[in-house]
């Protein structure tokens, strides 16, 4: 699936999954219609992430869901992921692209128009834009207070690659992010801490859809 | 240079370099005759290590010194390093070998004969054996009290790939490690915290040489 078709994007973190395994959360998110999964799992060792990645690859491939690896191009290659997601402190987009080749998906975290334009020029396929509303689960969030849907609109205006809004996004506030021009939204805790991760995924997708066509769906919060 | 010819091996850690940069330490170690440098720099971000790696590649290539990257196969490829060093919690040796190809150097940290035999079977070119004497600078050291030169001898007996002893090694205690069958020794603080890193490197090399031929050199400590 092309990133432009992603509505919902789960970033995994077993330590924030209310005692459940990431495999269990991903399985439920797939049931709820997740479009992309990013293997992140900050502060865990490489071997553990590699082995988890092999499991997630099996699950996501069977479901036609894209699997992206945070930061590690080598792990992405080793588990045959669809691509990699790099932040401003990871390998440069151009290097990730060189290592992975033209067919892989390369995404980049950006919080400003300047970073977004640079990432697009360097060969990124999509942008993770945020922190939208501020968040506590992403330790390296650039702006704690959130850049808001307004920044999504500014970046969408400046680049032609799809945007995934991230940071503090929930089913209740995803609509304005999509309305501002994001293809979809990425979340950790909205799905990983949900009592019913499958339902949380479906609700998030519905919120994105209604944000894209506010006249035909549920009313958005703005 | 083949790992069997390594006498001294510097593992970098700028945070343990007494306020000096890793580039400065490596430059001095090269002056002192270092044989191999491992870019490690635990707890720093990928971009920083990548950029440092580009600098170290330039310095080491000009001096004919091997450059190895800890854990990250992708960074090793991106900076054109000679190889990678993986621990028991990193990517498996066989995967690193697959990703890097047959010509790259792949090393593996081992503390037992079983791990050593497995690493050799999986395609490792050399082993980092330790912790020899215990150390405080390697947070993930497997055995705090040290396995001693005796374990080096046991592993040297079990495998045919070269061994580098690591963990608590200094010029004063390197001799017995070489005498036990190690090709060389790896250090962090013995070089990075030395007032004169160049001289520290040369002293370490002399200690290894005297351990290899105890009858012809300085007396060892045992």
Automatic annotation (TrEMBL), chains A, B:
Its EC number is 2.5.1.3. 4-amino-2-methyl-5-(diphosphooxymethyl)pyrimidine binds at residues 38-42, 70, 109, 138. Its cofactor is Mg(2+). Pfam families: TMP-TENI. The keyword Metal-binding applies. Mg(2+) binds at residues 71, 90. This is Thiamine-phosphate synthase. The lineage of its organism: Archaea, Methanobacteriati, Methanobacteriota, Stenosarchaea group, Halobacteria.
């Amino acid at each position: 699936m092309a990133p432009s078709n992603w509505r919902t994007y789960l970033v995994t973190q077993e330590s924030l999954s209310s005692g459940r395994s990431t495999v269990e959360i991903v399985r439920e998110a797939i049931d709820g219609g997740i479009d992309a999964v990013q293997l992140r799992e900050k502060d865990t060792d490489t071997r553990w992430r590699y082995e988890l990645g092999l499991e997630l690859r099996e699950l996501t491939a069977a479901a036609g869901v894209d699997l992206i690896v945070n930061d590690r191009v080598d792990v992405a290659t080793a588990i045959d992921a669809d691509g990699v997601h790099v932040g401003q402190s990871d390998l440069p987009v151009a290097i990730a692209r060189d290592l992975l080749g033209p067919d892989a998906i390369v995404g980049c975290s950006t919080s400003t128009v300047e970073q977004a334009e640079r990432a697009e020029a360097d060969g990124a396929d999509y942008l993770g834009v945020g922190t939208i509303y501020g968040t506590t689960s992403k330790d390296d969030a650039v702006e704690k207070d959130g850049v808001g849907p307004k920044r999504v609109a500014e970046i969408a205006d400046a680049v032609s690659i799809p945007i995934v809004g991230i940071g503090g996004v929930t089913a209740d506030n995803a609509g304005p992010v999509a309305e501002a021009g994001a293809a979809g939204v990425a979340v950790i805790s909205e799905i990983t801490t949900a009592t019913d991760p499958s339902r949380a995924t479906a609700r998030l997708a519905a919120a994105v859809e209604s944000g894209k066509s506010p006249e035909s769906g549920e009313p958005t919060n703005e």
